[in-house]
Write a structure and sequence with these properties.
The complex is a heterodimer of chains A (108) and B (114). In chain A, 0% of the residues lie in helices and 57% in strands. Chain A has 108 residues and is mainly β. In chain A, strands 2, 4, 5, 9, 10 and 11 form a six-stranded mixed sheet that branches. Chain A starts with a strand and ends with a strand. Chain B is mainly beta and 114 residues long. Chain B has strands at 4-7, 10-13, 19-25, 31-38, 42-51, 54-57, 64-66, 76-78, 87-94, 104-105, 109-113. In chain B, strands 2, 4, 5, 6, 9, 10 and 11 form a seven-stranded mixed sheet that branches. In chain B, a hairpin with a 2-residue loop joins strand 5 (42-51) and strand 6. The chains are: A mainly beta (108), B mainly beta (114). Chains A and B meet through strand 5, strand 9 and strand 10 of A and strand 4, strand 5 and strand 10 of B.
């Protein structure tokens, strides 16, 4: 069983839409959580870390639900430039695992 | 401001050949790791290192060796290449071990095994 699960999508949304992704993890001892963005044929780049209290960075909001073992990413007012694959990552000590990614396409 | 540098960017090998993928970082990061990324599988951890002289296995270590003689470098060796090792390989580093720091990725090596 894969330890980190994501809906692969694709999510196709119009500009200006709000879209949310979820990511579930199986390791209850996981300590840290992250969202990365990956453009086609590029390396993953950190979008934001996810804190227990939830955190926001501009149009992006990340939340952690330890009881249900999932993290979420909300993107408001989607831009064409938000089109990418979004990877969630969870870390326990020195072992970081990633989901397979959720593909988002924002259309005009 | 190089960050994490991987070489080569592309490589084609024949089955049975060996090669080394290079990874160097100039951020004085303690933690370095290697991932492979395959379609539908996401990133899978191959090996990691928490400091010079210390390495450990990740999720998919078979067929790969690593060493960490300096803080800066973390090469990945394919001992005898197999078609199943065709993938995109990413090296990553973070300031410290323990998992609390996000990782910074190199721009990848695309490897094809014929």
């Amino acid at each position: 069983r894969k330890e980190v699960e994501q809906d692969p999508g694709p999510f196709n949304v119009p500009e200006g839409a709000t879209v949310a992704f979820n990511c579930t993890y199986s390791n209850s001892a996981s300590q840290s959580f992250f969202w990365y963005r990956q453009d086609c044929r590029k390396e993953p780049k950190l979008l934001m870390s996810v804190y227990s209290s939830g955190n926001e960075d501009g149009r992006f909001t990340a939340q952690l639900n330890r009881a249900s073992q999932y993290i979420s990413l909300l993107i408001r007012d989607s831009k064409l430039s938000d089109s990418a694959t979004y990877l969630c990552g969870e870390s326990n000590n020195n072992d970081m695992r990633f989901g397979a990614g959720t593909r988002l396409t924002v259309k005009p | 401001n190089a960050g994490v540098t991987q070489t080569p960017k592309f490589q084609v090998l024949k089955t049975g050949q060996s090669m080394t993928l290079q990874c160097a970082q100039d951020m004085n990061h303690e933690y370095m790791s290697w991932y492979r990324q395959d379609p539908g599988m996401g990133l899978r951890l191959i090996h990691y290192s928490v400091g010079a002289g210390i390495t450990d296995q990740g999720e998919v270590p078979n067929g790969y060796n690593v060493s960490r003689s300096t803080t800066e470098d973390f090469p990945l060796r394919l001992l005898s290449a197999a078609p199943s090792q065709t993938s995109v390989y990413f090296c990553a580093s973070s300031y410290s071990a323990g998992g609390y720091q996000p990782q910074h990725f190199g721009d990848g090596t695309r490897l094809s095994i014929l």
